[in-house]
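Hi everyone, sorry if this is the wrong subforum. Our group has a chain we'd like a structural model of before ordering constructs, and none of us has done structure prediction before. Sequence below.
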Amino acid sequence: MNIQTTKLEIVKAILEIDNIDFFEKVAELIKKEKPDFWSELSTSEQNEIKKGIEELDNGKRVTYNSVLKKIS
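Answer:
Right subforum, don't worry. Here is the predicted structure as C-alpha cells:
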C-alpha cells in the first residue's frame, strides 16, 4: 500500500468520527510531529539569532531607514 492510499483511508475513517476528544488528541499529535524551526537551524544560525536578540535587549538597534540608506 502506498502513502497516498493510506492517507485517503485515514481521511475517510476520520470523516466518520464525531468524537471531539479524538480530534483533540489527533491535533496534539500533529502539533508534535511538526518540526520546530529552531532545531532545523545550524548552530551558527542559532548563535547569530541569539546575538541579535541580546543586542536588541541591550538597546543596540538600527532603524529601518538607516538600513535602507546603507543598501541604496
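For your construct planning: Residues 40-72 form one domain. Helices lie at 3-15, 20-33, 37-40, 43-57, 64-71.
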